[in-house]
Design goal:
The complex is a heterodimer of chains A (314) and B (255).
Chain A lengths: L6 H26 L5 H18 L4 H22 L4 H22 L5 H9 L7 H20 L1 H9 L1 H6 L4 H23 L4 H12 L6 H26 L3 H35 L9 H6 L21
Helix pairs in contact in A: 1-6, 1-9, 1-10, 1-11, 2-3, 2-4, 2-9, 2-10, 3-4, 3-9, 5-9, 6-9, 10-11, 10-12, 11-12
Chain B lengths: L3 E12 L2 E12 L3 E5 L6 H8 L7 E6 L2 E2 L9 E4 L13 H6 L13 H13 L15 H13 L5 E5 L7 H16 L3 E5 L12 E6 L2 E6 L34
Parallel strand pairs in B: 3-8, 3-9, 6-7, 7-8
Antiparallel strand pairs in B: 1-2, 1-4, 4-5, 9-10
The chains are: A mainly alpha (314), B alpha/beta (255).
Chain lengths: 314, 255
């Protein structure tokens, strides 16, 4: 594999794998709490961080981490205390973050919007050794959080009110989710770019849940899809000279479409297998007893072999 | 009487600018089954939500197991069934996964041990959902969703069960199953406070009914008997929501 001979490709592939794991790992909780577009908003806010990094000649990755984490915490606070329309306040934050980024980068010495392009759409070939160190540290944080606290995060994302009554520290967990999502955005920033980050958080999860029944398998399958498309996209972009971020996202959407097309026949097959196991006939039958006894006005039709009560349980 | 498990004294609560509770008193003793009845908007849901700390109280005192609610941390003693029509979230989850989250109050750092798995299985058995344990909740009927939510509350083996309209949207067969589950819990000494729209199959279980109207307690004693048409078996109790500012709809429970 001559592709692995280049140091920049080694770095690119390592970054790609880490993004493929972390983005769906936190994205699944966002999808579960029906905040699928949260990642997109954080990506906008992170632009201000990148701009600030350029202006202060700091590492843009670390600066973006700080600013997007602060933005994510602010979004959570708006969600708690927002007496006015929460979505309006969030829109302010998103567009303020984007405008701030463009403004700051133009104010930076020698900065132009061209610098911003590599952060907006990702630029794997310019990932430096320092970037990789930062990405590894941040990715480790995301993986530890999403796995170690999976039961707590699951409970809070499934039913916040119930989670509070079980005594879970719901506010702390919500803040942690927001910060973890912000960290993931900056991990993925160099690979797919800020504008496409959210796709990697949402699309692999959406693709996985076409086939799955449990949260655990959805999580595993989403991460598997995430890693496959990020590696596939990176390799494709190396050989075909196409932008990696766009390739990765298009591959993810392709995976979603293939799995969706597979889902319907698979579900039908599964249902048929269940019916056969239960001994249900394919069609509804009018039970004899009702026919004899009843006036023939009300007819209950149901699979003949099944009792009338699905709830007759001890 | 034994010690009170829940005690509300002069509790007032507002939602936005609207006063929902105007100083209610409510005591539930150990082993009692108390139903909170009333029309839509009478404040019964708000009342139970103040007990579990989901609605801020502007005046009055609330105690849980003799501890002021603000200092109450022993959530494992309490099982809660929120008012929901579905147990599903944005991502598929199995019945077991949902019920397991009810066990978290008894675990350390969310690690489930063998006894925890056994308790989750027992809770599923209690509501008759053991055979659906590995199914996705998306594949369940309305009554089965309600049973999953109740199993989730039972998973921590609570001494006190608080349920907010557990029978909403549940057919009679499932209501009977839920009544049987509840009977078993009561026989073990569990205290129950439940919000109900009508008594239905739970009637024989209920020791005491508290009727709310416009944020005030108007009846506290034996469950009121349904009258007239409401008493007919299979009567479906449906009435429209009152427009704000008008008199609450009469339920027949108050007469």
């Amino acid at each position: 594999m001559e592709i692995l001979d280049y140091a920049f490709m080694q770095r690119a592939l390592l970054a790609a794998v880490l993004v493929g794991v972390t983005a769906p790992a936190i994205g699944i909780y966002l999808v579960q709490r029906r905040q699928a577009l949260m990642g997109d908003g954080i990506g906008h806010v992170a632009m201000t961080g990148v701009g600030l990094g350029f202006m202060l000649s700091w590492s843009p990755v670390w600066m973006a981490t700080l600013v997007s984490a602060a933005g994510a915490v602010l979004m959570e606070l708006i969600r708690w205390y927002g007496k006015t329309r929460g979505d309006i306040a969030l829109a302010m934050l998103f567009y303020g973050g984007m405008a701030g980024g463009v403004m700051l980068i133009n104010l930076a010495p020698g900065g132009t919007n061209a610098n911003l392009m590599s952060f907006l759409f990702g630029s794997l070939s310019t990932v430096s050794q320092e970037d990789i160190t930062a990405i590894c540290v941040l990715a480790a944080f995301v993986i530890v959080m999403t796995l170690a606290l999976r039961r707590q995060l699951f409970a809070v994302s499934q039913d916040e009110e119930f989670a509070r009554v079980t005594g879970l520290p719901v506010r702390a967990l919500n803040l942690l989710t927001a910060v973890t999502a912000a960290v993931t955005v900056t991990v993925a920033m160099r690979v797919v770019g800020l504008l496409l980050v959210s796709a990697l958080m949402v699309v692999p999860v959406a693709a996985a849940q076409q086939l799955t029944r449990s949260f655990a398998t959805t999580f595993a399958l989403a991460v598997a899809i995430g890693v496959s498309v990020t590696i596939g996209g990176t390799v494709t972009s190396y050989y075909q000279d196409v932008p990696p971020g766009a390739t990765i996202v298009l591959l993810a959407i392709g995976a979603f479409m293939v799995l969706t097309a597979l889902a319907t026949p698979l579900a039908r097959q599964r249902a048929r297998a269940l019916e056969l196991a239960a001994g249900d006939p394919a069609e509804c039958v009018i039970p004899e007893a009702v026919e004899k006894a009843g006036a023939g006005v009300v007819r209950d039709t149901f699979p003949a072999s099944r009792g009338s009560s699905e709830g007759a349980v001890g | 009487m034994s010690e009170p498990v829940i005690s509300l004294r002069g509790v007032r609560a507002e939602l936005g600018s609207r006063t929902v509770l105007r100083g209610i008193d409510l005591t539930v003793h150990r082993g009692e089954v108390v139903a909170l009845l009333g029309a839509n908007g009478s404040g019964k849901s708000t009342a139970v939500r103040t007990v579990i700390g989901q609605v801020p109280v502007s005046d009055g005192e609330i105690e849980l197991f003799g501890t002021p609610r603000r200092r109450f941390r022993d959530w494992r003693r309490l099982g809660y069934v929120p008012q929901r029509t579905t147990a599903a979230g944005g991502v598929p989850a199995t019945v077991t996964e949902i019920v397991a989250s009810g066990r978290l109050s008894r675990t350390r750092l969310g690690i489930l041990r063998r006894t925890d798995h056994a308790a989750i299985r027992r809770a599923l058995d209690l509501v008759g959902m053991a055979d659906r344990a590995k199914d996705s909740v998306n594949a369940l009927s309305g009554g089965q969703h309600q049973r999953v939510l109740i199993a989730r509350a039972l998973a921590c083996e609570p001494e006190l069960l608080i349920m907010d309209e557990p029978m909403a949207g549940v057919d009679l067969v499932s209501q009977e199953v839920l009544a049987a589950t509840l009977r078993e819990q009561v026989a073990r000494g569990t205290t129950v406070l439940l919000v109900l729209h009508e008594l239905g199959p739970l009637e024989p279980l209920i020791d005491r009914a508290v009727v709310l109207r416009d944020g005030c307690v108007t009846h506290d004693g034996p469950p009121p008997k349904a009258v007239g048409q409401h008493a007919l078996p299979g009567h479906d109790h449906v009435h429209p929501h009152a427009a704000p500012g008008t008199d609450p709809v009469r339920t027949g429970l108050l007469s």
